[in-house]
Amino acid sequence: MEYVIIKESQTVLMRIFSFITIIVYSIISYLVIEFSILLSILFFCIGIFLAGFSKVYKITRDFNNEILFILYGKIIWKSKFYIEYPDYISVFHASFVQRCEDDGTENKFKKWVIRFFKGNTHCTVLEEDNYNNVLKTANDLGVLLKVKVYDRSKE
Asked: Any stretches that span the bilayer, and where are they (predicted)?
C-alpha cells in the first residue's frame, strides 16, 4: 500500500436531499420571486457543483501528502497537505457543539475522530459517524506510516 485516501462519507440520502433542494429553490426563485431565468440557472449550477464537490486527503508512505478537491469523482485540484509525521495515531469519540449566535440555539453531536499526534500537537484528519470506517482508516494509516494506533473506544 503506497497511500491511504481519507474521505468523509456523504450519505446517498444527503445527495438526494441536495438535488431536491436545488431544484425546488430554482423553481421557486423563478416563479415566486420572479428572478430572471439566468439567475435561476446560475443557482442551479452552483448547487449541482456543491452537491458533487468533496475534499479528500491523500496520505502517502513518503509523507508527500496532498489535499484533493474532487467533483463527481474527478480530481479538479491538488494541493500539498503539510502536517508533521505523527508519533502515534489516536481514534476516539468526541462531542461537538455548534452554536447559532442569531437565535442562541446549540446543536450537540458526537463523531469518531482520527488525530495524528506529534509531541503536544495534533492534527485531525477525519471526523465521521461510523466507528468501523474510522477504525479501518486509522489501522490502514498505522500500517502505512508504521506508527501505533491507539483505539480510545476500548478504555
From this structure: 12-31, 37-57
